[in-house]
Amino acid sequence: MRGAKLYVIGLTLAGLAGCGTALAAENAPVWVAARPPAPSSPAAPSEAPPPAPATPSSPSSKPSSAPASSGPASSEPAADPTSAPASATASPSATQEHHGGPANSLMVTGTKGVALTFDDGPDPATTPQLLDLLAKQHVKATFCLVGENVKAFPDLVRRIADEGHTLCNHTWNHSLTLGKKKPAAIRADLEKTNAAIRAAVPDAEIKYMRAPGGNFTPAFVKTAAELGMTSIYWQVDTRDWDHSGGESDAAHVTSVVKAVKKHTSKGAIVLSHDYAQPDTIQAYRKLLPWLKDRYDLIALP
Asked: What 3 state SS string does the chain have?
């Protein structure tokens, strides 16, 4: 389980993280038909770095090479994801509009459907609980998987795929600075993660990539696109990882529920975490019925 100190460190790093500014539009998925609306949640990347993947005997082990000591992903100021990248060229068709997120990453679904996304797993304790809950409510979601955790728990990856959820590459070990590396290094990391996913699910479709901490760069997004993956940001950040010291579990659940209810609108991509976040599971026990009454909940196609 993550400690309060790790949350504070992760929040500090994520708040400092810069964003890329542009991407050639030809890799836009055809189901994105229009420029996304302004976000209703904080625009700057705020996803905390997860602990290193657990082993079956120690699900809450500390990272062996924690990203907490690494610098921010870029020294550039954070970009406003609601504005078009200054260096981007005009798109030739409605299906090639700017996506709106950092480095032109995707921030909304492009439809009325709301996409729930869960990062950093699979986790041997919380991921099965989440899958049980989603199955009970007949909801499909998108799971952004960390390669080391995939390697440790392939059976959970198989279950995620077998139950009809979408798979997303969340890099091998959640490095917050991967986007600053050379394209060859980025490609090697993403390919290694995809290989681990396909070792568990040989015919897996992996159409999406999410940068750790939301630290997208043009090179990161371009490399993912070359591998057939659309880069996904978010419009709603639940901040479920930000369990500050002194906050009770009940208060944290309430905070997550309020964030989703306040900021979710049609077409939103919602960021949550299934890795070491039991309060997130409790929050979604309350949220799923509420969301289903108001929105069409979809897995990214």
From this structure: CCCHHHHHHHHHHHHHCCCCCCCCHHHCCCCCCCCCCCCCCCCCCCCCCCCCCCECCECCCCCCCCHHHCCCCCCCCCCCCCCCCCCCCCCCCHHHCCCECHHHCECECCCCCEEEEEEEECCCCHHHHHHHHHHHHCCCCEEEECHHHHHHCHHHHHHHHHCCCEEEECCCCCCCCHHHCCHHHHHHHHHHHHHHHHHHCCCCCEEEECCHHHCCCHHHHHHHHHCCCEEECCCEECCCCCCCCCCCHHHHHHHHHHHHHHHCCCCEEEEEECCCCHHHHHHHHHHHHHHHHHCCEECCC
pTM, 2 dp: 0.72
Kindly list the catalytic residues.
119, 273
Give 4-32+93-298's CATH code, choosing from 3.40.50.720, 3.30.300.20, 3.20.20.370, 3.40.50.300.
Answer: 3.20.20.370
Contact 186, 147 (CB under 8 A): no
pLDDT, tens digit, for every residue of 237-272?
A: 999 999 888 899 999 999 999 999 999 999 999 999
Model pLDDT for residues 106-116, shown as the tens digit of each residue: 999 999 999 99
